[in-house]
Specification:
Length: 237
């Protein structure tokens, strides 16, 4: 689907390397769809929007990169492996919003705080994440940290609109909706983001993704893009 060597396919052997006791993950590979679900013109829309966005937002992204360099030591861009359409792995790009060594810090937090461990298990995130620096909090609140994902859209890892990309461990949380997730490219924005993402449960997120895929259309994508733009103008969503 235009991804070629840009990503690696999710296989049963690779799933076996994931540290989990949930046998569900071992069956995911058998549910991979034959092709990416789309509508005529979706990929062209992605290419045009991502290309235009990168062109016009380049000055802002350069300023953000400089601010990150000044604010804290470490790389400007953070890349994290996610699962995309047809189970393909890819590196999802973001501006770095956390301190260096955030993965190790998360492990320490979860091991030492039962409440945080339960919150992360339920939502795969922490509402008040102590690893996020002051600049990073602003970038996250305004979703500016996700602008590098326009590059993911441009090369075909992602779409402008779709489910948010997830890590392998989250596949089990999608339950029987995992087939819907796997048959489309994950999105830079989506139904979850414009539906009060901070106030929704993970289960509600899954249902929003399922409904989006089942009713996939240009009209719905344009509506989500319009709502995303309005939210961004208001200062984040």
């Amino acid at each position: 689907m235009g991804q070629g060597g840009l990503a690696t396919t999710l296989t049963r052997e690779k799933l076996l390397t994931v540290p989990t006791s949930n046998a569900f993950l071992l069956d995911v590979v058998d549910l991979l769809p034959a092709r990416v679900r789309s509508y005529p013109g979706k990929r062209l829309l992605d290419f045009l929007l991502a290309g235009t966005g990168l062109l016009f937002l380049a000055p802002l992204m350069a300023l953000v990169a400089l601010a990150i360099i000044v604010a804290s030591p470490g790389p400007v861009i953070f890349s994290h492996e996610r699962i995309g359409a047809n189970g393909r792995r890819f590196k999802c790009l973001k501006f770095r919003t956390m301190c260096v060594g955030a993965a190790e810090r998360l492990q320490q937090l979860l091991e030492s705080d039962e409440k945080l461990r339960g919150e992360f298990a339920a939502n795969q995130k922490l509402r008040n994440d102590p690893r996020v620096n002051r600049l990073g909090a602003f970038l996250r609140r305004t979703s500016i940290d996700e602008l590098p994902q326009l590059c993911n859209v441009l090369v075909g890892h992602m779409s402008v609109v779709g489910p948010r990309p997830i890590v392998t461990e989250e596949l089990a949380l999608y339950g029987d909706a995992v087939t819907e997730y796997l048959c489309v490219r994950p999105g830079l924005t989506g139904a979850w983001q414009v539906s009060g993402r901070s106030d929704t449960t993970y289960r509600e997120r899954v249902e929003l993704d399922r409904e989006y895929v089942q009713s996939l259309s240009l009209r719905i994508d344009l509506r989500i893009i319009r709502r995303t733009f309005r939210a961004a103008v208001r200062g984040g969503y």
